[in-house]
Structure formats: structure tokens, C-alpha cells
Amino acid sequence: MATRKTTLNLNLLFLACILSYTVFAIAAKSYYDVLQVPKGASEDQIKRAYRKLALKYHPDKNQGNEAANKKFAEINNAYEVLTDSEKRNIYDRYGEEGLKQHAASGGRGGGGGGFQDIFSQFFGGGMEEEEEKVLKGDDVIVELEASLEDLYMGGTMKVWRDKNVIKPASGKRDCNCRNEVYHRQIGPGMYQQITEQVCEKCPNVKYEREGYSLTVDIEKGMKDGQEISFYEDGEPKIDGEAGDLKFRIRTAPHDVFNRDGNDLRTTVTITLVQALVGFEKTIKHLDEHLVNISSKGITKPKEVRKFKGEGMPLYLSNKKGDLYVTFEVLFPTSLTEEQKIKIKEILS
User: Fold this and answer.
1) Sheet containing 323-330: which strands, arranged edge to edge?
2) Angle at CA 85, nearest 5°, toward 81 and 87?
3) Angle at the Cα of 150 (from 149 to 153), degrees rounded to 5?
4) Are 127 and 120 in contact (CB under 8 A)?
5) What are the tens digits of pLDDT across the range 120-153?
6) What domains, with CATH codes, occur in the chain?
């Protein structure tokens, strides 16, 4: 009887272990799933996916939302691993356990400056200055003309980028140069301090021009002057880091609407009769929904009417600005004597 009981307890313990492992395996979402990209995603795809998700789950936008804050931390952790070629290779082969062992054995990484530092690389913010200054190439700023429709609804733009790329070249070059200080005795109790530049020899490199296509995500409500950054896609720097590529938003002219901050403005022409007796009229918005601008009263020339909530969406918000419609009244170019008499009779 005791033997049967012991066997039953062991079976239950084994089953519990299996269930625990299964639950853990289900709960442990891969870094690719966290960023919503395929396993073979390019670095460009990973950066674009990170940018979207980080904006969505940023703590400033989800104050008091613990689930969103946890998601934001997961997104940044996944991004940190998948944009580091060494960590990504380890993760692809050995998973998270391999990364932990790599960090424990003195490998690079293990948290760094935190996910706020990663986020600030994309969207601005104070990065603490590193102890060792890293040489960096020039940032490249490109004026990007975005359609009013994309700025209203969100969209993507394909941009061709042509830049310098560092390639191997023949020969050797001075690299990792540093100043070394030593002292030389020049007499009894007298020493001279000497500073000497010491360099290593590295394989030579050269610049070549290469072109490639970039997809730029336009977020709803972005304003003129706002920048979209592509980290380390600027000008390269030999023995340093490449600068950043920044697309600076400019609103393209539109046939119907003019943007005024978070508001939209447009002009509608009506006839003199419509101005006097009212009219039924709609205008098609940027997403093609219809806005009713009808009036039952008198409309004066140059009169401006506000339509609340029909303007531009506010960036990273569910709110919208307003739409202002200016009415132009189309007067007849001439009147017959009979028409003049009738108008006098009506208006007198």
C-alpha cells in the first residue's frame, strides 16, 4: 500500500513538472513575437516595428497602466537583443538561457542603460554622456514632404537612400590611436613628461556609394519640423559609429484643406441665393467621410464657421482639432431691370 502511494505521489510530481514547463513555454513569448516581426526580419524591419510599438506603449501615454508598462519593457528588451548581432546570434541558437550564460561569462550587455535610453535614441531625450567618448559620423537630415492624408490617417512612404558605405581596401592603416604618457629622467631627481601618440595597424578601408530603399512610417498627427530617426543610418565613421538619418516632416500642399497646427481650414463657395435662404451641402474629408456644413440661416460673405473635432488628430492622442470653413458668396455679374425690381420688393 505504501509503495502504491509513493508511486502515485511521484507521478503527480512528474505531472506537475510537465504542466509547469508547458505553462512556462506558452508564457515565454519569443523576442520576434514581442516585436511582431518574422525571425528573419532585417534590422530596418525591427527598427520600424520597435518605433511603432514603443510609441504605443510608452509610460507617458499609459500612466498607471501596469500592463502597458510591462509591455514597454518587453519591447525594449527584445529590441536590445535583436539589434545586437552577437546577442541575436546567441538568442537564435540557444534562447534566453544562452543570453544569461553569455552575460554571466562576461559578455557584452546585460541591461545597459535601460529601455528609456533605447527609446530616447529614436524620439529624443537626454542620454547620459558615456565615460568614453565614441566618434560618430554626421547626422543626415532629409526634408520629407508628407501628404495631408498620411498625416491625418497615418501611412508609409518609400524613400531611396544613397550613402557612403565602409568597404575593405588593400593595405594597412593607423587605428585605435591613443596618447601615452611616460617620464624620462634627464638628471638627478629631474624627470621630463613626454606624451607620445601610439597607434595600432588595422586593415585598410574605403568609402563606396550604395543605394537602398527605406520605408518611413508617418504617424497620425505629426507636425512640421517633427523628425523620424533611423539610428546609425547617417554618415559612417571609420573606427566609430555612423550618425543618424532623420526625416524632418513637411506638410505637402493640399487642393482642399490647409493645416493650421491641429486645425484644418478650407473655403467653400455658395451662391447668393444659398447665402440668403440656406443650403444643403457636405464636403469630403481627408479619409473620405462626409462633413455636413448645411445652413438654414443667412450666410455672410467671408463668414467662418467652426466644426468641432473635424480637424487634425493630435499626435499620440485620441483627440482632434477643429475644422474652420470660410464661406465665399458668389454674386451675379449682372441683373435685369425686372430682377432688380423684384429684389427691391422682397428686401424693402
Assistant:
1) 258-260, 263-271, 323-330, 303-307
2) 45
3) 80
4) yes
5) 555 555 434 334 567 889 999 999 999 999 999 9
6) 2-123 (1.10.287.110), 140-251 (2.60.260.20), 258-347 (2.60.260.20)
